[in-house]
From TrEMBL:
InterPro entries membership: Erg6_SMT_methyltransf (IPR050447), Methyltransf_25 (IPR041698), SAM-dependent_MTases_sf (IPR029063)
Swiss-Prot/TrEMBL keywords: Methyltransferase, Transferase
Descriptive protein name: Methyltransferase domain-containing protein
One of the GO biological process terms: methylation
Native species: Klebsiella oxytoca
Taxonomic superkingdom: Bacteria
GO molecular function, one term: methyltransferase activity
Transmembrane segment boundaries: none
High-level lineage: Bacteria, Pseudomonadati, Pseudomonadota, Gammaproteobacteria, Enterobacterales
Residues in Methyltransferase domain copies: 43-128
rRNA-binding is among the record's keywords: no
One Pfam family linked to the record: Methyltransf_25
Amino acid sequence: MMNKFSPANCPQTYVNQNMMGPNVLRLVEELSRSLELWPGMRILDLGCGTGLSSMYLATEFGVEVVAADLWVRADDNARRFAAAGMDNKITPINLDISTLPGLGIFARDAFDAVVSINAWHYFARDALFFDQRIAPYVKGGGTVAIVIPGLRSSDAETRPEIHALIASGIALFTTDRWRAIWSGSQHLAVNQCRHMASGRQAWLEWQKCDNDFAATDAAIRSDELGQQLRFMQIIGRVNK
């Protein structure tokens, strides 16, 4: 069945209206090629924004999605999902994963997998955070799959623009450093940590859309700085 929320099929005007950063549909499509998901699974889309990634996952795999975001109102996402005919597959919630109760509103082992697109680097910069705040709510053997911006090399951390972002609490690291962080978890085995092929296209589509934040991002990202930034995907399996 055709996925109407794939990058090839979703109208660009709709994507532009709902983008909050580099085109999430490009990123989640590439990530999903490395995932084993099937109908009936319950997926947490952590930091879902306007829910584009949630709608893609629910349509592509027939999974049930809990679409969690801190900033986008759950009732706004509920209206968006209903308009798309997805309200029976996606449950929107507002959630601050960094403060209690966080995922404590759910039962232990509530989810078969966690997916997070362009959000993880804002809240989960160490293994302890995952072990305490996320692992208890994912089934043993479950999948954690994320897409985040990162650095081509550790030398980039010395650039003033990047150093300022890292100092503010945003985790912009290399794949090697992220692999080391996840390997420090008691409950997470790293299966994959690599740069993505779709990152540049996702970024260019964000730059082209009529959005004040996109214009700001384009203005501060020099060509030289852009050479240091890469989107990466990290996939792990939960051990219990």
